[in-house]
Amino acid sequence: MGLVGRNGAGKTTLFQTLVHQYIADGGVVQIDDQDTVQRPELRAQMVFIDGQNLFFGHYTLLRLADFYQQAYPQFNAARYADLLREYKLNGQRTFGELSKGYRALVCIFLALASGAPYVLLDEPFDGLDAIVREQIVKLVISEVAEHQTAFLIASHNLEELDGLADRVLFLKGGTITHDYKLEELRQQAVKLQLVFPVGQVPDIVQSAGKIIATQGRVLTVVFANYTPEVAAAVSAAQPVLQEELALDLVDLFKAEYIHPKNEEVLKNA
Length: 269
Known about the structure:
This protein is α/β, with parallel strands linked by helices. It has helices spanning 11-18, 61-71, 77-86, 100-113, 130-147, 158-162, 182-188, 203-208, 228-236, 249-257, 262-268, and strands spanning 2-4, 30-31, 34-35, 46-48, 118-122, 150-154, 167-172, 175-181, 190-195, 210-215, 218-223, 241-245. A six-stranded mixed beta sheet has the order 4-5-6-1-7-8, sandwiched between helices. A four-stranded antiparallel beta sheet has the order 10-11-9-12. Strands 2-3 form a two-stranded antiparallel sheet.
């Protein structure tokens, strides 16, 4: 599952609240309908490694396993050591000595070895090269397939997330505004490039669609629910040009957060 939102939307704060780094002003965090405040031991079912507040920079990689074994009863030290060997990492090196890419990998190793069924990843691809990003994606996919571990991944790398997530939550104004199952969405949503006669932007475009880009008279429009009725109404408006384009997560992000205001679109058209 992906978690998407603009900078400052509260993605990291949500993670920190789920694992009780922050105490919520209201609401409740539940696992299997059980309150994690009343039953704090349930928090061991979630693992979140806060990259902004790491305490273990001067400890060796093998020493990190000792800390996590105290917090996670199911921590698999042998698996963690195997992952270090697989990626040719010396367990006697300190975490702070590693490059950003290898630090990201070690955090993934700790999360996978924790034995927690719910893994929270906050910007796991941020600033990493293509090879490390690919390695993280492979580790996540393998973990889901072999252990049925659930991942909640907050990321601004929407292209990477698009190929990884089955489901995406949009966080806006402190609220989950949309919960998209991507395969279902792609069966009912379309992205169209449209050109209409000068000065006209039909009502159907403004009511049923979201304009995510304009270039001269060319409008790029996302219709989240492109029903036969909507299609008929668009056709009845007699566009000079109508072309369907591939729809991706970036388009949904633009439609949710940065689509132009109608008056600006009318002016450009």
